[in-house]
């Protein structure tokens, strides 16, 4: 008989002592995960753990909140990937029941990008996850073919007064420092232009994924605007970036400096391109 043990693999802390704990069962001998993850909720410190409410009992709430499910409920995708747990098709496609068409496409794009990024860094998946990835790509292909307007209709390219080549070089350096997702350099031409004319980004374009801290993105954009590398309003710039699975908001970029930020990594990369850290 297989000997197993259950461990806490992640704790997501929220405000005022609230926590979501993620449990996983492991084979004691091999250390491999067995079955799916178990989620519990603590309302406050030292309170009793409560099992997370199954999604089928809360579809309306998910619809109202437009929850991105495995992307943020609560970090289920990241947990499964790190544990090399199988991501089945049913779980991955469940949000189709409550997401509107815009957010459904956004969800698919992000799921595919995150899974493929993890695969490049860590190697192949189990068959179940590979099948899920293929199904996600089928879904996004169907949407792209049937909805030519897609999700990015109306978003304008940002003006790059100093040219695209400089931005591509800058983005490449931020990729190397793991502050921008791999492939961000190749997105420059989709999101920026040297032309004075207004241009829409391509309907098949991917948003730029920021993987460092949020406050670093805030200072990154401020620095580029102050140095005239980007000529665009702050609210227009925000819509081109994604942080933790969601499009960056104007409010997130407007937050002021509080004096405790560590900007050393950001400053070091910006300095390579003679850009002062704002």
Please explain how this structure is put together:
With 278 residues, the protein is α/β, with parallel strands linked by helices. Helices cover 39% and strands 15% of the residues. The protein has 3 domains: 52 residues, no CATH class; 93 residues, no CATH class; 114 residues, no CATH class. The protein contains 11 helices and 9 strands. A 4-stranded antiparallel β-sheet has the order 1-2-3-4, covered by helices on one side. The longest helix is centred in the middle third of the chain and has 22 residues. The radius of gyration is 21 Å and the shape is globular. The N and C termini lie far apart (61 Å). About 4% of the residues have low confidence.
Order of helices and strands: EEEEHHHHHEHHEEHHEEHH
The largest pleated sheet is described as: 4 strands, antiparallel
What is the molecular shape?
Answer: globular
Q: Could you tell me the mean pLDDT?
A: 80
> How many strands?
9
Strand pairing plus helix content: what structural class? Answer: alpha/beta
End-to-end gap: 61 Å
| Relative helix content | 25-40%
**Strand neighbour order, sheet with most strands:** 1-2-3-4
Count of domain modules: 3
């Amino acid at each position: 008989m297989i000997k197993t043990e259950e461990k806490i693999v992640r704790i997501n802390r929220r405000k005022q002592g609230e926590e979501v704990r993620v449990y996983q069962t492991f084979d004691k001998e091999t250390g491999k995960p067995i079955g799916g993850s178990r989620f519990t909720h603590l309302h406050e410190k030292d309170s009793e753990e409560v099992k997370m409410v199954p999604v089928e009992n809360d579809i309306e709430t998910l619809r109202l909140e437009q929850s991105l499910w495995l992307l943020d409920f609560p970090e289920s995708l990241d947990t499964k990937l790190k544990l090399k747990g199988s991501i089945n098709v049913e779980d991955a496609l469940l949000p189709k029941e409550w997401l509107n068409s815009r957010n459904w496409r956004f969800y698919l794009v992000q799921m595919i990008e995150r899974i493929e990024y993890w695969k490049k860094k860590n190697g192949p998946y189990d068959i179940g996850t590979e099948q899920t990835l293929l199904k996600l790509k089928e879904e996004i292909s169907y949407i792209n073919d049937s909805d030519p307007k897609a999700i990015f209709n109306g978003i304008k390219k940002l003006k790059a007064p100093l040219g695209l080549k400089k931005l591509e070089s800058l983005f490449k350096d931020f990729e190397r420092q793991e502050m921008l997702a791999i492939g961000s350099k190749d997105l420059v031409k989709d999101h920026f232009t040297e032309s004075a004319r207004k241009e829409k980004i391509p309907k098949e374009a991917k948003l730029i994924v920021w993987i460092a801290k949020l406050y670093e993105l805030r200072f990154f954009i401020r620095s580029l605007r102050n140095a005239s590398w980007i000529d665009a309003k702050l609210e227009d710039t925000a819509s081109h970036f994604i942080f933790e699975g969601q499009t960056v908001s104007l409010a997130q970029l407007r937050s002021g400096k509080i004096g405790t930020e560590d900007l050393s990594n950001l400053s070091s990369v910006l300095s390579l391109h003679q850009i002062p850290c704002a």
